[in-house]
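Example 5.3 — Oxidoreductase
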Amino acid sequence: MMCAIQAAKRGKTVAVLDHTSKVGGKILISGGGRCNFTNVGATPSQYVSSNPQFAQSALSRFTPQDFVAMVQEHGIAFHEKKLGQLFCDESARSIVDLLVTRCHEAKAQFFLDCKINKVGKSELFEVETNQGIFSSHSLVVATGGLSIPKLGATGLGYEIAEQFGHKLITRAPALDGFVFGSQEIEKFPGFAGVSADVLIKVNGKKFRENILFTHTGLSGPAALQASLHWYSGEVVEVNFSPDRDVLMWFKEKRKEGARSEIKNLLAEIIPRRLAERFCELYFPQGNLPPLPQLSDKILSPLANEVQSWKFVPTGTVGYSKAEVTRGGVDTNGLSSKTLESKLVPQLYFIGEVVDVTGWLGGYNFQWAWASAWAAGQAVGTK
Ligand SMILES: Cc1cc2nc3c(=O)[nH]c(=O)nc-3n(C[C@H](O)[C@H](O)[C@H](O)COP(=O)(O)OP(=O)(O)OC[C@H]3O[C@@H](n4cnc5c(N)ncnc54)[C@H](O)[C@@H]3O)c2cc1C
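Solution (predicted structure tokens):
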């Protein structure tokens, strides 16, 4: 829709084809129904791509402030929740309304419930659908990723890319959290619903936010962020006490003459359920000696486990829950300025279908807007 608005404003005849009956399905469910529509701090460093600088051009030409200006013009109230993340005060629907209204104003036409059977090209692009054949000088592919199939996600964009000779970067569900193996399930039985403020590390990246234990693994913002950077077989490391050195804490308390049980002391700095479980695992015989009887040698491995608990997930949760698809159309085949194919003139790929995947926090929409805007300035130019 963003691309349609820009192209139609430039006087191009634009048809928006979508096989669902309502546009903007993912916008509606995003941000818990309030749509985290951008992040004021978006730069290429918050994106994962085989070509890390690719997003720079589009992101610098259509900035978060440019989208905020559209939001303000449309009278949508919003607020910053945290870390530069902007959300609607009321409903994500207002963002869909904004885009649909601007499309109508610019005279871009919608064709919904439009099932696409085949895409071809002779002199013109030809898109064969249940509503007839659409012939055009240009074709913009904005079919998104594979996540949440029930909202209409398909792999059509990737198929079109391959059909025209583009390479794909391996795709994987991302921003979806982790699945535990049997060892971790046994380690944390009945922990679903327990949350903790942690520092999570994976593949050289660190995130300080909450995790949430689920019946099958880890969710919550920190686990979602980490899942974007995780590749099969890699270790995830969790620090349950990111602000306080646990061994130092025990030593200080011992110096002060504390006689408390170790699990109670630990529960002062990490959630009680976790404190109890770590102590239970570490002192399996159950009789937890009071602090003065515990030497540094005994305390140190426990402190280390709390601050650097490591596990290897069996996988991430999958496309049914993933917020995004990592990977996609290889950016080497696209112009970073216009998103036009380097192989087929006037063929464009924008948004999530491209191998540019943002962190959690409004970055994916900002990429969708910016790449769409960039293509919208160029599409149809001979
Ligand atoms: C639960 C959830 C919450 C999210 N929250 C946020 C958030 O708060 N902030 C953020 O930045 N990002 C968020 N995201 C990610 C964000 O929604 C996407 O990155 C963004 O929507 C991508 O935009 P797009 O236009 O590339 O693709 P999409 O928004 O996925 O749009 C693709 C369109 O193509 C259509 N389509 C697909 N296949 C076909 C086909 N075969 N024929 C015809 N039409 C087809 C689809 O129906 C859809 O309308 C969230 C995602 C999910 C799943």
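Remark. The first helix runs from residue 2 to 9.
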